[in-house]
Amino acid sequence: MLQQTAEHEMITEKLKEIVGQEWVSDQPEEILIYSYDMTENPPHAPDYVVMPKTVEELQQIVRLANEFKVPIVPFITGANVGGLTIPLKGGIILDLKRMNQILRLDESDMYVIVEPGVTFGHIKKFLDNTKFRYCYPNAPPFASVMANALLGGLNNLSLKYGAMSEIINGIEAVLPTGELIRIGSCACWSDHWWGRGPMPDLLGLFVNWQGMTGIVTKMGLQVWPRKPIQDWKAIMSNDFAATYRFAKKLANCEIMNDILLLSEETVKMVLGVPLGQAVWTEGEPRWALVLDFDANTPKEYEAKWEIIRDVFKEEIKKVDPKAVITSVDAIEKVYGSKLGDFKRLPFTIGGMLEYGGNTWVGTYMTSNPEMVAKGVEKAFEVIEKHNFEKCLYTRMMKGGHYWAFRFLLRFSKENPEEVERMQNLTKELFESLFEMGAMPYKTPVWASDYIIERCDPTWVDLMHKIKNTLDPNGIFNPGRWGNE
Amino acid sequence: MSDALSKYREELYSCTRCGTCKYFYQNYSDSCPAGKKFQFETFYPSGRLHIARGLLEGKLEWSERIRDILFSCPTCASCTVNCKSRHHNLIVDIIEALRAESVSQGFEPLPNQKAFAESIEQAHNPYKEQHDHRLDWKQGIEDEVPQKEKANILYFVGCTSSYRQKDLAQATVKLLNKLGVDYTVSEEEWCCGSPLIRTGQLDLVKDLVEHNLELIKRMGATTVITSCAGCYRTLKMDYPNYAQKLEGVEILHITEFLEKKIKEGKLKFKKLEVKVTYHDPCHLGRHAGVYDAPRAIIQAIPGVNLIEMARNREKAWCCGAGGGVKAGFKDWAVEISNERIEEAEKTGCDILLSACPFCKTNLQDAISATNSSIRLMDLVNFLIDLI
Amino acid sequence: MDLFQGPTDLFGIAINSALNKKIGADQKYREFIKSLKENVVVDLDYYPLMIKFGEGKFEVSRNIENPTVVVKINTQDFLNILDNKASIMGLFLRGKMKFKKGFLKLLKVYKIFSTMVK
Q1: What is the DSSP string of B222-279?
Q2: Largest alpha-carbon pair distance within chain A?
Q3: What does the alpha-carbon distance between residue B95 and residue B18 come to, in Å, rounded to a whole number?
Q4: Is residue C115 pLDDT above 80, yes or no?
Q5: Does residue C79 belong to the interface with chain A, where contact is any CB pair within 8 Å?
Q6: What is the DSSP string of A274-327?
Q7: Which residue blocks in A142-239 are alpha helix, DSSP H?
Q8: Which pLDDT value is given to residue A4?
Q9: CATH number of A102-225, picked from 3.30.465.10, 3.50.50.60, 3.40.50.150, 3.40.50.2300
Q10: What is the pLDDT of residues A74-111, one digit of tens each?
Q11: Chain A interface residues facing chain B, Cβ-Cβ under 8 Å?
């Protein structure tokens, strides 16, 4: 971190010349607020917070940063739950909220082009006036669409299409050396963002790179027709193996939008049960499923619903007679809107976000039932050891090709002992799951350091080579994935 | 850190900065005027709570920048309805407590806001007007305005109606006269204290509260009616924090009172074919939960077509005048209001109605600034020609 | 602060929420609930829950003490009522909702739950 030197003053002035003085701060208030997020990751202070509006401003900032070797960390809403916008080496936080336009919807090829500051709420509001829909995470509406795509986040169409990174059609980005690049069909024709190929696909140079290889300024994302009939069902069950088999079989039927499998602790957390009290007790249902599907016609709807009921009877009810299936509408009638909000993504899980601290160990792994069951058992053991709540949140991904396996971990940031205990938990939980074949997404730096030591050294070597080539001064989000 | 702020410690630590306070929930429109304007995380409700945490932890020191961040909030309370966390209902209270702490730390409000206190101390109103001119609004209708020693109802006029929007005070008394209720006004009315409470200048507030409560008691009033949303919020919700609540006294906004009279069959209106929309004042709506009464009145007028703005009721976009913003950030206050005028115009209405003289002032300024042809009226003024 | 109140078991939360919501919205129902003095046990196939009515209020818990009414119903049927796929009366007549105790309170129990889910 730079001291309040003459150089710092000079850089501050130059930044103000680029974006306007009201969009630059090096004041203690902004420095503090941007130095940490909701997670257990330790804070690191930036030196400047800057809010550019245009690509040209961004390019000028990048050139300035290269000249003075000042780190750059992109930030939009800071809701990545991985500590990824905490500037490990200080420098400039680029808050991209002002770049918030939805530039175009192409109805024929079904994509939107968005700027970084477009949030899920923003895109929902926009698309609700069209015949299209996007895909949404179980996350607050003020979270960045682009960031979630670049970080391979999951959503309520992940069963069909996989992680959000898989629906990117193309991007425009400012490279760490200041050039502007387009990737995908838009590299040839500025009006055509219909896909990434067939040309050598460079998108992988940006996806999951956590802002180390450039700042994406535009992104083409797929959207889909909104079907006239949409419905959600809920299941409460008691046998994990049966519940998981149901999820896998239903996924393989290729009729669903989303299959969420939760522990009862997660349901209680969503309902707002106080911290520490979202526990399962003997006699209560153990697992919950939320099923999301849609249809073009009532006939199609009835057919899908019949399949769901049949698979439920075959896989769950036979071995678990107490298991129940109902509509989320019925659940909402008794429990209120907190559970009903599963129908209205994006939404805020108040119960998860009201103790100051929220984190997770979120992974993708094999969908092999034995491995999954082992993973759940191991994870519960580790979480119980550290005395936190076993809030399991999982999703079948891309037709059952893989599985999203995540633990939502809320904690009080007021209590340093609890923060330390959470740091110990996330570390042990991540390591346990990694050993079982689970790969974290939105990987915090301590996890990426662990992975680098254990994965293919050729991969690590190539990753560093690419990073060094694109970012010779090492200024883009330094300190991550072993890149100094 | 003062006791007044330390008591919110648990709330300060319950905010994770999830961003839900930044949008109207499931409407996805911007809800925070300061966040929308200044855009740094610090200017959003969550940012302010985290600044308070920084102060509590000693990571931040009081400064002019913190003062500016705190005083740039119109205290519209949209964050309180959008936030889904357990501290949601206290966000505005915390911001006001922070402002009071800022003042006590020597970081005073902005000059125009500071002027409230000077004026109120000298003349019991924030407008630098003379106290003995408080009832000048009666001019031309003196015989119609009762001034009794005792009455069932005290019409608490409020400073804005007394000194600036006198037509509102006049329209209110005409309505009350039409209803034949036993009421009075009083020249001994002092400022309710809202300008001071919203800007952290609390030294004089207890005196104002005690004086006004003593006035109500002396009048023997069982009901206090006000046509100002700010006075209403202050009398009803802030006064109990400063003094023992007067037993048996009901505080009503004029719209609540009129709604009652309509239900009792004592108030009927002439027909008028017109399209109107209604702006919910923050202090009446989100702060005090009064959304239905004004609408019930409008809908009781034959021929009137009420068309809601896209953001209405608890999702109403602030007019921009509250929380001292009109005084401290004159141009920005109008900028906030411009957005509301645009929204009103989109309804295709003939008349924009509201129920707060302070909202009316700022909305009118925005109408002038944007050369809008929309007509703006306080609901009471609108009604007076229809009785 | 807006703090979570009431039981923390899954079905206790359901009944507590549903009752509170209906009481908040329906004055007549509020008066009716205030008038009750019974200890009503809802014996679900998962576990039994008691709703203790008296002194103008109610409390839902897993603590079963001095029940005056015991209604046995399985969870799927209970959810079907909420989903408008079954009626309380229909389930009762088909023997899927049984009174193990307090049969004479049938109408009161009917009113508690049928109004709650409207």
Answers
A1: SEEEES-HHHHHIIIIIGGGTSPPPTT-EEEEHHHHHHHHHHTT--------EEEEE-
A2: 74
A3: 18
A4: no
A5: yes
A6: PTT-----TTS--EEEEEEEEESSHHHHHHHHHHHHHHHIIIIITT-TT-EEEE
A7: 145-150, 158-161
A8: 64
A9: 3.30.465.10
A10: 999 999 899 999 999 999 999 999 999 999 999 999 99
A11: 22-23, 25, 27-30, 32-34, 37-38, 49, 51, 77-79, 95, 97-98, 119, 121-122, 124-125, 140-143, 272, 344, 347-350, 353-358, 412-414
ipTM rounded to 2 decimals:
0.95
> How long, in residues, is chain A?
484
Report pLDDT for A3: 54
The domains located in chain C, with CATH, are 10-111 (3.30.1050.10)
User: Burial level of A415, CB count in 10 A (0-12/13-18/19+)?
Assistant: middle
* Residue B20 sits at the chain C interface (C-beta within 8 Å): no
* Domain coordinates in residue numbering, chain A: 6-95, 102-225, 229-440
Residues A31 and A43 sit within 8 Å (Cβ to Cβ) = no
Superfamily of domain A229-440 in CATH is FAD-linked oxidases, C-terminal domain (3.40.462.10)
Confidence (pTM)? 0.95
CB B113 within 8 A of CB B324: yes
For chain A, which ranges sit under pLDDT 50? Answer: 1
C63 residue type, one letter: N
Cis peptide before B33 (omega within 30 of 0): no
Rounded mean pLDDT, B242-254: 91
Ordered by where they begin, the domains of chain B are 3-104 (no CATH), 111-261 (3.40.50.1860), 268-384 (3.40.50.1860)
DSSP, res A400: G
Q: Which residues contact A103 (CB under 8 A, 6 or more apart)?
A: A112, A113, A114, A115, A218
Sole residue written with tokens 């006269």: B177
Fold held by A6-95:
3.30.43
Q: How close is the nearest chain C Cα to the Cα of A33, in Å?
A: 24
Residues B173, B157: Cα–Cα separation, whole Å: 10
CA–CA gap between residue B213 and residue B219 (Å, rounded): 10
